[in-house]
Design a protein that fits this description.
4 strands
Length: about 260
């Protein structure tokens, strides 16, 4: 009788769980359909929330960066003339910014005249005689001349795509000048292509045959935006200027037909 009682006795932990050992998966009760459905709903809801949150971050990030840079630029430009207005007892936010824009505009008008050009050339001559400042001035002038609407001789001429550094790889650059290489048989026309390696102020210069250069239908400003943005503003389709001109010629013909 004692042996029968010992064999039929159940541990206290199993008795509380209805006689089922929780450590034994074969004896554990199957999960109910409600718990499985609840877990699936929680997983779907978590995935949806995380996806929408990342979408919001992707949308708001460029807006926040643009707003921050614009606000910093307004405060920076406003700081040139705002101390002058504060001394006069005028405290209006944005007045210094508007004054700075008007000052830049009138400087452009003045420099466009012959008298302003003469004064500017004298100041430029003085700056170029300074030991360290002249290098900074020359580099910054080349960049500003590239996006200048006047298109002077120091500006970038065209956007160029050259095969570099290996076959099948291409590099963005800007045509700065042309040079004629004199050979014994015949002369070869080369183009000086500036390929930026660190934004716009540092790069390499390549002399490439004008026939081997691909000239895309991109303006100088679009090329600068592509370089500065690290290729993020690259258009999906790039066509050479010759093909782009042919497509423009075909459009009127198709309309006439």
């Amino acid at each position: 009788m004692a042996e029968e009682k010992e064999s039929t006795s159940i541990p206290l932990s199993q008795a509380e769980n209805g006689g089922v050992d929780p450590e034994d998966p074969a004896k554990s009760p199957p999960s109910s359909p409600n718990s499985s459905t609840r877990k699936a709903c929680c997983f779907v809801l978590q995935s949806w929330v995380s996806k929408k949150f990342m979408t919001g971050c992707v949308v708001l990030f460029p807006v926040a960066v643009t707003f921050f840079i614009t606000w910093w630029f307004i405060q920076f430009v406003d700081g040139f003339f705002s101390p002058l207005y504060e001394r006069l007892g005028i405290d209006i936010f944005g007045l210094g910014f508007i004054t700075s824009l008007l000052f830049v505009f009138f400087v452009g008008v003045f420099v466009s005249s012959w008298m302003g050009a003469a004064v500017f050339s004298v100041g430029e001559w003085v700056i170029k005689r300074m030991p360290f400042v002249r290098h900074l001035y020359s580099a910054s002038k080349q960049i500003s001349a590239a996006i200048s609407p006047d298109q002077n001789t120091t500006a970038f001429k065209e956007v160029a795509i050259i095969r570099h550094p290996r076959v099948g790889e291409y590099a963005f650059g800007f045509i700065t000048s042309t040079v004629t290489l004199q050979r014994e048989t015949e002369d070869e026309e080369l183009c000086s292509v500036f390929v930026p390696t660190n934004h716009l102020y540092i790069g390499d210069i390549f002399l490439v045959n004008s026939k081997d250069i691909i000239r895309p239908n991109l303006s100088i400003r679009e090329g600068i935006e592509i370089i500065v943005s690290g290729g993020m503003t690259m258009p999906q389709v790039i066509s050479p200027q010759e093909r782009f001109a042919r497509q423009k010629e075909r459009i009127p013909l198709n309309r006439m037909m």
